[in-house]
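Why should sequence recovery work at all? Because a backbone constrains its sequence more than one might expect. Tight turns favour small or flexible residues, buried strands favour hydrophobic ones, and helices have their own preferences. The token representation captures these environments compactly. In the example below, the structure is given first.
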């Protein structure tokens, strides 16, 4: 999370002259976790264009995991309210890729800013082998093996409130996701058990629920969840949460200007994954130090309490240029 990224506060009018911010940084954590990020924003005459790129890596006993998140957004400030749209692209290497489009807006009331966003997302899981109970196909004992390629559509809903004062600010947000069932292309390669094969070797389609089309009811959800399990809790490891298939995300925090040189911030987030039963809380503290009229450095220290993987302590540093 970048506290000093270029975002107009509820109390700041849109500048007449162009203003901008660029930043880059690195987070390093226990259990061999690391995150790299760059981003920036440009503002002029009520128009704001911003974006960022984040790449996270973690090492597990079963193997390494990596993810990448890209975001771009454009917004226009009409004065008391603003509207905008953007796109996100999130990928967990060898697990899933998500593409999303979102629209949002804000409304200012005195020092308060109320924001809302809705996002439509399409997720494609990588091709993966599976072995499931044959009962999912035809009710007989045995197993069915093959390869699956699953996809899923979802909607994300987000609400946020910001309170900006001359020397301090606070915020809170809540995000929830609504998922369709997985729809899978399935290639069956082997069947065990008595009787004829559950389905001839070849391609079929399966859904998480609904009518029992071959290769069977609930096959889609079963093979999809199996595909997601190589990296449970990865999004708790200093990784950009928008790249993950979350059920919900809650956060609150604030910042305070100590003097002309130092600013402190704190953020607490609660996240729950949708399909792997992982949930976790992350607390991060920040210290911003102004090095010059143009340059600011930011140092962070955080801790993640996770339910399904080892907890992570991490430190970070980033540099921000105010153009």
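From this structural description, the recovered sequence reads:
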């Amino acid at each position: 999370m970048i506290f000093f990224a270029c975002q107009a506060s509820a109390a700041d009018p849109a500048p007449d002259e162009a203003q901008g911010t660029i930043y880059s940084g690195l987070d390093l954590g226990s259990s061999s976790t690391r995150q790299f990020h760059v981003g920036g924003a440009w503002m002029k005459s009520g128009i704001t264009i911003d974006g960022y790129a984040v790449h996270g890596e973690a090492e597990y006993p079963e193997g390494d995991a990596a993810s990448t998140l890209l975001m771009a957004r454009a917004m226009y400030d009409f004065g008391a309210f603003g509207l905008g749209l953007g796109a996100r692209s999130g990928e967990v290497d060898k697990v899933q890729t998500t593409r999303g489009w979102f629209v949002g807006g804000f409304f200012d009331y005195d020092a308060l800013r109320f924001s809302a966003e809705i996002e439509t997302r399409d997720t494609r899981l990588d091709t993966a082998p599976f072995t499931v109970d044959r009962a999912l196909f035809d009710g007989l004992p045995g197993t069915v093996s093959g390869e699956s390629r699953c996809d899923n559509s979802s909607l994300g809903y987000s609400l946020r409130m910001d309170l900006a004062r001359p020397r301090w600010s606070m915020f809170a947000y809540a995000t929830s996701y609504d998922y369709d069932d997985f729809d899978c292309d399935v290639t069956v390669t082997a069947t065990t058990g008595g009787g004829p094969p559950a389905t001839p070797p070849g391609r079929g389609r399966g859904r998480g629920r609904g009518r029992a089309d071959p290769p069977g009811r609930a096959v889609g959800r079963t093979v999809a969840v199996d595909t997601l399990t190589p990296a449970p809790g990865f999004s708790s490891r200093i990784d950009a949460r928008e790249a993950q298939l979350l059920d919900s995300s809650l956060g609150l925090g604030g910042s305070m200007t100590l003097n002309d040189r130092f600013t402190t911030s704190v953020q607490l987030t609660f996240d729950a994954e949708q399909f792997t039963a992982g949930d976790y809380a992350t607390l991060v503290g920040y210290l911003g130090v102004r090095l010059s009229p143009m340059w600011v450095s930011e140092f962070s220290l955080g801790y993640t309490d996770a339910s399904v993987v080892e907890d992570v302590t991490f430190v970070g540093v980033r540099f921000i240029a105010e153009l």
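A few observations help interpret the result. The chain has one domain: 60-289+302-316.
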